Amino acid sequence: MQKRHRIFIAINLPEDIKKELSKYQKKWEQLPAKWTNKDNLHITLEFLGNLTDEELGEICLVVKEAATKHASFSINLSRVIYGPLGKMPPKMIWAEGEKSEELRDLKKDLREYLLEKVRYRPELGRGFMPHITLARISEWEFRKIEPEERPEVNEDIDFIVPVESIEVMESELKRGGPVYTILESHQLGE
């Protein structure tokens, strides 16, 4: 049986931004949440699921091709909130980024190229909102907290994430949580 790889395409963050975002764990440590390891903080562009070695090779070529057609840009992270918006109880705490034309175009091209090469189910239905998952909330435990005692998670931030590359990442599920590995990094074009 062929080994399969749990693959996603992501934008990784500079170390200084990861460090600042990881500080929110102390601010809301009373929440029933599993906080994301600092080294795992990223923005997911596409989650592809379990792929064979052959499919993974195709994906790496497609991501490289898509990257060269887009210039570097920035994403402004503007607030830390419960996510997804309007969902109660919330599933996550995330740092939300502002939408941009550059990000929308990159994601659109990436999805089109990927759908030609591999079978996966892209998330459809709602618009893409760039975000970084800071924590996953235990919905069962969250419901036990009286509504008036639940901490408000809504804080304005101002971090600029330079997007100069996109990465093909593998997620390995381990006892201590997922471990993410960059398999390939592709620079965006000029």
UniProtKB/TrEMBL annotation:
Active site: 42 (proton donor), 131 (proton acceptor)
Chain span(s) of sequence motif HXTX 2: 131-134
E.C. no: 3.1.4.58
Motif HXTX 1 positions after renumbering to this chain: 42-45
GO molecular function terms listed in the Swiss-Prot or TrEMBL record: 2',3'-cyclic-nucleotide 3'-phosphodiesterase activity; ligase activity; RNA 2',3'-cyclic 3'-phosphodiesterase activity
EC top class named in words: hydrolase
Hydrolase keyword on record: yes
Record key words, sorted: Hydrolase, Ligase
Residues covered by the Phosphoesterase HXTX domain: 12-91, 99-180
Database matches in InterPro entries: Cyclic_Pdiesterase, Phosphoesterase_HXTX, RNA_CPDase
Catalytic activity line of the entry: a 3'-end 2',3'-cyclophospho-ribonucleotide-RNA + H2O = a 3'-end 2'-phospho-ribonucleotide-RNA + H(+)
Pfam families hit by this protein: LigT_PEase (PF02834)
NCBIfam families documented for this protein: 2_5_ligase
Protein's job: Hydrolyzes RNA 2',3'-cyclic phosphodiester to an RNA 2'-phosphomonoester.
PANTHER family cross-referenced by the UniProt entry: RNA 2',3'-CYCLIC PHOSPHODIESTERASE (PTHR35561)
Stated family: Belongs to the 2H phosphoesterase superfamily. ThpR family.
Protein name: RNA 2',3'-cyclic phosphodiesterase
